[in-house]
Structure formats: structure tokens, C-alpha cells
């Protein structure tokens, strides 16, 4: 509020002057209590007016709403929310926050690590997801990126669930490689995905 630091005595004087000015400020003589106003179709709120609003303007399904309707454990749904919101602590995000880390994928060690790369473009993800879909007898929706597939209304719910679980298992594997220096083999990753 103040551009310079004031001694305590001057600060007290300024605050007293400010409160005196605020107390003397007049808003007018016709003060009324605040009232909620419903300005849609009728002058007062009626449930019928709200239903007519919903009929005229149906609410669109947000990508996050599609995510929360999946049948998966809460930890996987939370992971999916972070993935769709670009909130996973990938190397590129950590670098933006000032961390000094080499930006490489911990799976393929070739490309930069981003949420999109880990959850779609990484070679390990492509191999694991292709085998998981084959073993689960579900057609593989690998025609775009994970973000579009998770948000796709026309995509089969099972496809989206399996895609999200695959992303989660590979994220967990990435964290194990990074923090615990442990690495699972390809078959163990496929088994983990199918068991989730």
C-alpha cells in the first residue's frame, strides 16, 4: 500500500487519518439490504425457470467430467486429472520452476520428458499399450494423443480406462526409475497394467 517504509508513529497517524476519512464517507440516504435477484425469465426464482435454462443451454461435458465417470481407483483418477491439467511434475515443468535437471525421458532416454511424451509418444508407452490392448481384446485407439483420447466422448469407456491405467503404470515406473533406481521389465509393466 505504501511505497516507502514509514516509522511506526507516522504509520499510526496515516492509519488514523484513513479510518477517519472512511467513517465520514457517506454512501447515500437510501440504503437497502442486499437482496438476491433472479433475472432469468421470471422476477423471482422458480425451479421451472432453472429447468428451462438447462433445456435451452445444455451443459457440455467437460473432459474432466468424462474422466471422473471412469471406473478406476481414486489414485488413478487423480493422476488422470493431473495429466489432463498438465500438472504432473515432469522434467519440463520442474525446469520451469527453477530446478536444474537434464530434460530427458526416463523410459526411452531419447526425447524430452513432457506429460504428452510420457503418455503417448514414448516408445515404451506405445509397446506396452499395444500389447495391453491386444491381451484385453480391446481395439487400440492410438490415433491421436492421450489428451484427445481421454476427452473423446465417442471413445469406448473401456478404452479410456485402459489408456489411463497404462499411463499411470508407466508414470509410476518412471518415478521408480528416477527415485528408487529400480527398473521393471516389459512383461512386468504389462502385468501391472492388466492387474490395475
What does this structure look like?
Residues 45-128 form the Reverse transcriptase zinc-binding domain. InterPro entries: RVT-Znf (IPR026960). It comes from Rhynchospora tenuis. Pfam families: zf-RVT (PF13966). The protein is mainly alpha-helical. It has a domain at 63-195. Helices cover 56% and strands 0% of the residues. It contains 10 helices and no strands. Helix 9 crosses helix 10 (186-195). The chain starts with 7 loop residues before the first helix and ends with a helix.
Based on Cα principal axes, name the global outline. flat
Largest sheet, strands/sense/barrel: none
Whole-angstrom Rg: 27 Å
Compressed to H and E, one letter per element, the order equals HHHHHHHHHH
Uncertain ranges: none
Structural class: mainly alpha
Question: What helical percentage do the residues reach?
Answer: 55-70%
Amino acid at each position: 500500500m505504501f511505497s516507502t517504509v514509514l516509522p511506526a508513529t507516522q504509520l499510526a497517524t496515516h492509519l488514523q487519518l484513513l479510518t477517519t476519512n472512511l467513517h465520514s464517507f457517506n454512501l447515500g440516504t437510501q440504503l437497502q439490504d442486499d437482496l438476491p435477484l433472479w433475472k432469468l425469465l421470471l422476477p423471482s426464482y422458480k425451479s421451472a425457470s432453472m429447468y428451462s435454462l438447462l433445456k435451452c443451454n445444455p451443459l457440455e461435458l467437460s473432459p474432466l467430467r468424462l474422466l471422473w465417470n471412469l471406473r478406476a481407483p481414486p489414485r488413478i483418477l487423480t493422476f488422470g486429472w493431473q495429466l489432463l491439467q498438465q500438472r504432473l511434475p515432469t522434467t519440463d515443468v520442474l525446469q520451469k520452476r527453477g530446478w536444474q535437471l537434464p530434460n530427458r525421458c526416463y523410459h526411452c532416454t531419447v526425447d524430452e520428458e513432457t506429460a504428452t511424451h510420457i503418455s503417448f509418444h514414448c516408445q515404451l508407452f506405445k509397446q506396452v499399450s499395444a500389447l495391453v490392448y491386444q491381451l484385453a481384446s480391446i481395439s487400440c485407439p492410438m490415433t491421436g494423443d492421450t489428451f484427445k483420447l481421454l476427452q473423446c466422448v465417442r471413445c469406448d469407456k473401456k478404452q479410456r480406462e485402459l489408456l489411463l491405467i497404462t499411463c499411470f503404470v508407466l508414470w509410476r515406473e518412471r518415478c521408480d526409475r528416477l527415485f528408487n533406481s529400480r527398473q521393471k521389465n516389459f512383461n512386468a509393466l504389462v502385468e501391472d497394467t492388466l492387474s490395475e
